[in-house]
Amino acid sequence: MTNARRSGPDLTEAIMRATLELGQELGYAKLSIEAIASRAGVGKHTVYRRWPSKGALLLDSLLSLSESALDYPDTGDVVADLGRQIHEAVDLLAGAPFGPLFRALVGEAQQDPGVAAALNERFIAPQEDKTVARLRAARDQGRLSPDFDLDLAMAILSGPLYFRLLVTQEPLTHAYVDRVLAALFAGMGPRP
Amino acid sequence: MTNARRSGPDLTEAIMRATLELGQELGYAKLSIEAIASRAGVGKHTVYRRWPSKGALLLDSLLSLSESALDYPDTGDVVADLGRQIHEAVDLLAGAPFGPLFRALVGEAQQDPGVAAALNERFIAPQEDKTVARLRAARDQGRLSPDFDLDLAMAILSGPLYFRLLVTQEPLTHAYVDRVLAALFAGMGPRP
Fold it and tell me: Which residue segments constitute the domains of chain B, with CATH numbers given?
């Protein structure tokens, strides 16, 4: 199939697939729009017409992997449901190609406010909305402390995982997130 | 004073001061060993003899700002003591010049395993040791849940702050960390 015949969605998908393939092969630092365009069989202007930067293209490519993967089940047992969702999140965040490329993107966000804003608007905020909705339902059912501040939920639940992913860079396992979740539910304070 | 007469500690201090000054002026991306050497009034080989890379030099320069700033008081009230220490940590992490340069260093750690290892060995691990020691004392005094897993303490206490610092990039305030600390002590689960 020649470029002239490929439709918009096909092209978009081919470019994002090339981004993930090359990202995994080369790492984020060596990834270039030229190489992506060449792998996808398009001109680099075709890429730039859709994405203003390598960071924006990578973000969209990563989002294409995470769509709906991070939804919450609602079985009535909030700890089990959070556990299941966090296991899926961890499989995504810690695995290839998502993990190393996502970490590189967060690294880029430390220097590029545009990447930081896009990451938050398109990945973090939708995830936070889902988390708060699931926890609000749990609170309404008496399965969460009535005093728990839902505005803190995303930072408290995700913070320990991102800390391990970005800072200590130790393995993120299901067993680890289960321990974190149990500790967060029990609380650090002594029982009254 | 000429270079020939400056002693080792003086030179080291001058180079680290130049790193922080220039880092604040230019940002991490534009910071170079050449510019640092020039600002410190030394040759670049003098810098490279002490530090293998820009990341290593920046880490040492940042550590010179944080020394002893992150010690824990022990007044007997563990929540108050953690609060005071976390306020100081937040003032350091969120302020200039430490904050933006530290964020850049964590960004660098996403691509450079040497920077990641140094950051953990020299900044995170000593901090974790202090945190665990303070919490163990609190647990021994019955002021912490006897079940709280001290191995998780650093990730649970620091994770929400780093999440805000690195990911959402919203302001880190004393009021925010107080809310997080209260939520962590109370726990997410319903009261028995």
Answer: 3-50 (1.10.10.60), 63-186 (1.10.357.10)
